[in-house]
Amino acid sequence: MLDTPRRREIEDAASALFRERGYVATSVRDIAHALDIRGPSLYAHVTSKEDVLWAIVDRAASRFERTADRALAADADPADRLAALVAAHISVITADPGEASVFVAEWRHLSGDRRQAILERRDAYERRFRDLIADGMADGTFALTDPAVAATFLLSALNGIAGWYRPEGRLAADRIADHFVDLAVRALTEVHR
Amino acid sequence: MLDTPRRREIEDAASALFRERGYVATSVRDIAHALDIRGPSLYAHVTSKEDVLWAIVDRAASRFERTADRALAADADPADRLAALVAAHISVITADPGEASVFVAEWRHLSGDRRQAILERRDAYERRFRDLIADGMADGTFALTDPAVAATFLLSALNGIAGWYRPEGRLAADRIADHFVDLAVRALTEVHR
DNA sequence: CCTACCGATCGGTAGG
DNA sequence: CCTACCGATCGGTAGG
User: In this complex, which residue's CA is closest to the C1' atom of nucleotide C1?
Assistant: First the structure.
């Protein structure tokens, strides 16, 4: 359906609720109530509940993809590229934790082709990590590991932020990112003595 | 309710379904169907759907706690203790990925006191990681970091395994654990040149 | 954007 | 362990 301001308000309210309670446990009436309207009124703006989920997940996926590509564009060594990729991923999460955590945790409630499409985009996204890790291994920057295992290790750690990050929390988003970049780069980097 | 073999079969079937589809998206009839009985027959063995969730989550929590305590009992240096703790955590996940992933992902659907109790046990469990990291920082084994941040980094990475691990997968549980231990210890360890 | 309402499904009970 | 059934709630439609 149309990409109106109201539509975006619906998706934002839905993101927050899906993050808190999960997609299935959130009713259409819950989303409407957050916007001070009645359940059926939502259908003037959306075609179905799953459409709202899809819009959020699709937008989050695009944001992750775009931001990662920008971060990887610079022509640096593997450690710096990894640092940039990790920081980019975290910035997407902290900029909109609702959207990000729906992408991370609720995509599996999509059905059919949409589910399949997101699965493929998730895999392609993860491949950026795998390939970068393999590059760093090949040139001796990174320790010997299984690139697929190391990539899921990192992505699980990063995506965890979507679950616990609160803008009003103890640490600012940048400080969290700094710590995570250090942890991620050290996790991969060979210790030369 | 009673701790009968049938009760355990119900919890195992429920774990697998909760892991696949989530607690809310799994109906009592779904669980019954997996055991080739009708929905209402389940209530001869359980008092409520949430009771089944609680039994699984409580058992998983106990297993994580017991296994971690055993792993930390040895009197070794922080790096070895961390390696033991990480390996222990992973062994609980790979021994029963259904139970573990329900603990990781579905506990929030518990209500009231049970939810509160699990929140506290999760925090106490995480504290084992935080304290160990702080110990290692104090004696110079570990790099300077925020122990709380580093602990969630590690636990998110480890818990991610519950989502993707399959016994018939490419890598045996032990090999996954070996890679994860290396990644985790390197992530924390100061690089001395 | 509303009220009125739909069929389907939910967790759970009664009573064997 | 079953059938029959309950009230509540679900996503969504009709018709303003």
Answer: A41
- In this prediction, residue B14 carries a pLDDT of 98
CATH number at residue A123: 1.10.357.10
The total of structural domains in chain B comes to 1
Burial class (CB in 10 A: 0-12, 13-18, 19+), A133: buried
CB-proximal positions of chain C, under 7 Å: 1-5, 9-15
Per-residue pLDDT tens for A18-73?
A: 999 999 999 999 999 999 999 999 999 999 999 999 999 999 999 999 999 999 99
Domain that holds residue A136: 57-189
**Is A101 inside any structural domain?**
yes
Q: Is A171 on the interface with B (CB under 8 A)?
A: yes
The reply to whether B35 falls in a domain is: no
DSSP character for B189? Answer: B
Is the Cβ atom of A38 within 7 Å of strand C at any atom? yes
Contacts of A152 in chain B (CB under 8 A): 160-161, 164
- For residue A157, what pLDDT band results from cuts at 50, 70 and 90? very high
pLDDT at B192: 64
In this structure, is residue A31 part of a structural domain? no
Give me the pLDDT at residue A2, please: 82
